[in-house]
Amino acid sequence: MSLKHYRHLQEHFHSLIRNKVLEAGSKLPSEREIGEQFKLTRVTVRQALQSLEMEGMVYRQNRRGWFVSPPAVVYDPAAHLSFNIFVTEQGYTPHTEKLQQTLVAADSEVATKMNLAVGTPVLFLHRRRYIDNRPVLIEKMYINTTLLPGIEEEDLTQSLSQLLARKYQMSYRDMDLSFKATSLPEEATSALGITAGQSGLNIERINYTQDKQVLEIDYEYWRHDAVTIQIAIRD
What we know:
This is GntR family transcriptional regulator. Keywords: DNA-binding, Transcription, Transcription regulation. It comes from Marinomonas alcarazii. InterPro entries: Bact_HTH_transcr_reg (IPR050679), Chorismate_lyase_/UTRA_dom_sf (IPR028978), Tscrpt_reg_HTH_GntR (IPR000524), UTRA (IPR011663), WH-like_DNA-bd_sf (IPR036388), WH_DNA-bd_sf (IPR036390). The chain folds into 2 domains: about 70 residues, Orthogonal Bundle (Arc Repressor Mutant, subunit A); about 160 residues, Chorismate lyase, CATH 3.40.1410.10. Helices cover about 30% and strands about 30% of the residues. It is built from 7 helices and 10 strands. The protein has a 6-stranded antiparallel beta sheet. Strands 1-2 form a two-stranded antiparallel ribbon. A hairpin with a 2-residue loop joins strand 5 and strand 6.
């Protein structure tokens, strides 16, 4: 592989994207077409595009091709805003797809965090979340049905924070948060339609009621280019 040609290809797309010749969401030519235009092998083209992907400039959807990445949404955990609200406020359209929902017996980890007996039924919820029809996030949640009876009968593609306020007159108060940069597990990359082993952000969150009871435990895997964590701290 010629390093000169590899860098030329990267700079070519950098320039097109910076100057908005290619705008967010635009589809790039196929790898074959790019290779023919620049007289490069498909392997070289793929490696150059993957480097741009690591920079957050482009992204690949399996079986669909390469696209220009949109700006990342800003997520401020301290603001206590739901996914639907903070995405909408930034001018994008959120969408949530339910992949799985079932009552399960709390294992030792979940039971300890929720202060429940091992084996207590909790609701397991697996969702895929989109911004402007682009899948950006896989979410697995364990919901304390002891505090939220009947929640399994609700439409759980909607905002859970709004459901809590409307049906249970409850709201999220305190939370424990953990952020970790990681290689996305195969299950997440498959569900997001991206290449196995890509980097991403793992967020683990425990939400509490006003009286310190655990409402839910949430495990999220985000695309690395889809979100920027920004926390505002005020006196």
